[in-house]
Amino acid sequence: MPQLQPQPQPQLLRPDHAPALLAFERANRAYFAASIPDRGEDYFARFDERHRELLAEQATGACFFHVLVDAAGEVLGRVNLVDVADGSAELGYRIAERAAGRGLATSAVREVCALAAGTYGLTSLRAATTLDNAASRAVLARAGFTVTGETRLSGHPGLRYLKSV
To answer: Any residues with CB less than 8 A from the CB of 163 and at least 6 apart, and which?
Structure first.
């Protein structure tokens, strides 16, 4: 019987994550594009520059980017806190297709919520997802987010969420 591997814990984005993060984004591009807007060719063409920009932005405290890295060094997901201001931030996440459906998103979102309160000093988190993304809606509900209203995301109807942390 195969041994179960522990869920990877969120790691704050570092310079050395770049190759594995790029591989994650490339490998899952079509999968992600089925439920969220595609990042576009420029994202991949300028990946190294963009990675440096994210790290510089993170250094200011305006955001906290996390990656979920397995024992082999492969990125299985990301959970980000952006637009940090006044004790609040916007949460966003994406999980690799091969890691979906195993509770990784829920555990990672919960862990980042704990980091938001305990490490980053935040008091609330916002999130949003489209109505047709049932998996994302379920993750947010399991992580304790509540619906606060309707929104549109890239032209698609969606819901806004809030969580006190």
So the answer is: 113, 124, 125, 127, 143, 144, 145, 146
Q: What is the pLDDT of residues 55-69, one digit of tens each?
A: 999 999 999 999 999
Are the beta carbons of 27 and 96 closer than 8 angstroms?
yes
pLDDT interval class at 5 (50, 70, 90): low
Q: What is the CATH number of the domain that holds 27?
A: 3.40.630.30
pTM greater than 0.85 (yes/no): yes
Q: Domain limits at 75?
A: 10-122
Task: Give whole-number Cα distances, 80 to 4, 5, 74, 149, 155, in Å.
Answer: 26, 23, 18, 22, 22
CA nearest 158: which of 134, 119, 121, 130? 130
Cβ neighbours of residue 34 closer than 8 Å, sequence gap 6 or more: none
